[in-house]
Specification:
The protein has 398 residues and is α/β, with parallel strands linked by helices. The chain is 39% helix and 16% strand. It has helices spanning 3-10, 23-38, 62-73, 75-81, 92-96, 101-104, 120-131, 175-179, 187-199, 225-233, 267-275, 292-297, 304-317, 336-349, 376-397, and strands at residues 14-19, 42-43, 52-57, 86-91, 110-112, 134-136, 157-161, 163-164, 183-184, 204-208, 254-258, 282-284, 322-329, 353-358. The protein binds iron/sulfur cluster.
Length: 398
């Protein structure tokens, strides 16, 4: 290794990380900052002052990717001024767009998949040593690394990843292709991380997984999601009160979880949400469409009737609970009558809030082969109609 590289290696290198997308990405960026700081890097908050600029990206919609292409494009001038500036694209877009990014953006130095983030510090050294374009992708076959991020920007709150990947293959979704098959973390690692977090003063924890209801699949220990919630709720020392003490959760910790899939949600889960004091009473349950024809084309594997029954059962069991959801408009083949079905379901179920998305075809997915036959204009009209209906419902619910 050249004298210059050795010298460079000893210099604290400033890294700027910009995160796009979901809570899982927020969490991955926090963990990556830990790894980089442990390797002597300094996290900075502007690309102008950075030696390395990293974009942690999302591929769930085309718009999210276009934003990254735009942002990286604006760095071309900066790289002309600072030839040593290193640029990396990590996360889901690195996996999904692996064949085109270097061609579209030759100023990018490395790509790294969501399951390979622990490789980034080495990649930075390798690129600096002149290795040229580097790709670390497809690592999602590896086990999930236990993590405890020290970079808790929000001292009171934290995310804890309980599983990664998804086996559901909804026809519009790229997640199974960029984050791999479902892998659950052993419950002891999760409990250990929560203990450390609470000791460090965290009061609100969100358990993360693309489909938390299928937690436990593939683990040696026989446990499901409700079993995990019970173990977490039993972490007596979280409130410092002895087990069985009535006000054990007086100074309690709140445990949220994201995201549930209607095909795996159950009354067992709802009863746990009712009975376990630390567990949130808020259920996020994406419906995606109010039309059975669309749910079938989306490969969601439940019907509108089953979904309604679930929400009714939840509201019956968790009295002051809240239900939020996600809806996609303009999915291929969605005609006015299907859209009206969705409008009627939104009006009937009155979610506390709902995220409304316009469908955009994603590479690798089954739906990307369907004719994208709803015009952008019509997608925008349907999006606006649903947004207005939901806004009114949410404001009346407050
Ligand atoms: S459940 Fe469906 S939408 Fe959610 S991550 Fe899995 S494949 Fe994607």
């Amino acid at each position: 290794m050249s004298k210059e590289s050795k010298a460079y290696k000893n210099l604290p290198k400033k890294v700027y990380i910009r995160t796009f997308g979901c809570q899982m990405n927020e969490h991955d960026s926090a963990r990556l900052k830990d790894l980089l700081v442990e390797r002597g890097h300094v996290i900075c908050d502007s690309p102008e002052f950075a030696d390395t600029v990293i974009f942690n990206t999302c591929s769930v919609r085309k718009h999210a990717e276009d934003r990254v292409y735009g942002k990286v494009g604006t760095l071309a001038k900066l790289k002309l001024k600072k030839p040593g500036l290193m640029i990396g694209i990590i996360g889901c877009m690195a996996e999904a767009q692996r064949d085109v990014i270097f061609r579209k953006l030759p100023i990018v130095d490395f790509l790294c998949g969501p399951a390979d983030l622990d490789k980034v510090p080495d990649i930075i050294d390798k690129v600096h040593d002149g290795a040229g374009h580097i790709m670390y992708l497809g690592g999602y076959k590896s086990k999930i690394i236990p993590e405890f991020s020290k970079d808790r920007r929000d001292r009171g709150r934290a995310y804890v990843k309980i599983m990664e990947g998804c086996d559901n293959f909804c026809s519009y979704c790229i997640v199974p292709y960029v984050r791999g098959r479902e892998r659950s973390r052993p419950s002891k690692d999760i409990l250990e991380e929560i203990r450390k977090l609470v000791k460090s003063g965290v009061k609100e924890i969100t358990l993360l997984g693309q489909n938390v209801n299928s937690y436990g699949k593939g683990l040696k220990e026989k446990i499901n999601f409700v079993g995990l919630l019970i173990k977490i709720d039993n972490l007596a020392h979280l409130s410092g009160e002895p087990a069985g003490s009535p006000d054990r959760w007086a100074c309690g910790v709140k445990i949220n979880f994201l995201t549930s899939h209607p095909k795996d949600a159950s009354q067992e889960l709802f009863r746990a949400m009712r009975d376990l004091k630390s567990i949130s009473k808020d259920l996020h349950l994406p419906i995606q469409s109010g039309s059975d024809k669309m749910l079938k084309r989306m490969n969601r594997r439940y019907t509108v009737a089953k979904y309604k029954k679930l929400v009714k059962s939840f509201r019956g069991i968790v009295k002051n609970g809240s239900v939020t959801s996600d809806v996609i408009v303009g999915f291929p083949g969605e005609v006015e009558i299907d859209f009206n079905d969705t409008v009627n379901v939104i009006k009937e179920l009155r979610f506390n809030s709902a995220y409304i998305f316009k469908y955009s075809p994603r590479p690798l997915t089954k739906a990307s082969k369907f004719k994208d036959d709803v015009s952008l204009q019509e997608k925008e009209r349907r999006h606006k109609v649903l947004l207005n209906i939901q806004k009114e419902i949410s404001s009346n619910k407050r």
